Amino acid sequence: MIASKFVVGVDGSEASRRALEWALREARARGASVVVIMVWQSHSVLAGPAPLMMNPRLAPHEVRDRHWRELNRVVEECLAGASTPELREELVEGHPEDVLAEKSADATMLVLGDRGHGTRAMLGSTALRCIHNARCPVLIIPSGFELGGVGPEGTRASEAVDPVLG
Description:
Layout: E1 5-9, H1 14-30, E2 33-40, H2 50-54, H3 60-79, E3 86-93, H4 96-103, E4 109-113, H5 125-133, E5 138-141
Parallel strand pairs: 1-2, 1-4, 2-3, 4-5
């Protein structure tokens, strides 16, 4: 049997936290691994060193360090002291939809929140693009979804037999 692996895209938003919490819970129930990915983009100015001298926090290494701290914080908060069989965190520079689609190639499932930072749409643009470009099933955790809620016929979400996950 091939081990299950959930790839979870996080950006620090409440929606991405819900997605990570769901994936961690399912990983515990199924003995799966979890790969948590935060994607960042360097918006460094190419107009010479003057802008960076005026605001050193814009330097790419500073921005990357802030994203690492945010990623670590989100994972620690979602774990809340609980364990999971295997957990890996990755900070990747690039476009979120491209990185997540690539990382989904060997995943059992790509798990995302319904929308990230900066959108009021019912479904965020990254989630929508991942639905079309991912190389595995994509699960979108909607706002208002209760983790561990009771499903059809009194089964808990993690007890339901899933045709993809088994």
